[in-house]
Amino acid sequence: MNIVIRKACIDPDRMPFDAAERKGIGHPDSLADLLADAFSIGYSTWCRDRLGVVPNHWVDKVNLVGAAAEVRFGGFEVVKPADCYLFGKVTESVGTVSIPIEAIFADAIETILPAALGDKRILEHLRLHVNNTSGVATDHDPQFYRPSASAGVASVLSTERVANDTVICTGASRVGLAGRLAMKLESYVTGPDFRSAWPAVGTDVKVMVVRVGTQLDFTAAVPFHPESVASWQDYRDGLAAVEAALRSQIGRLLADDPSTTAPTSWSLHLNTKDVPGRGYLAPFGTSLGKGDCGVVGRGNRYSGVIEPLRPASCEAAAGKNPLHHVGKIYSALCADAACRIWEQTGAYAEVHIAARNGHPLQSPAHVLVSLDADVDVRMTAAVHDVLRMTLAGAVAYADRFITTDLIARFRGGDHG
Question: What domains sit in the chain, N to C, each tagged with a CATH number?
Answer without folding.
Answer: 2-13+166-174+301-408 (3.30.300.280), 17-24+177-283 (3.30.300.340), 28-160 (3.30.300.10)
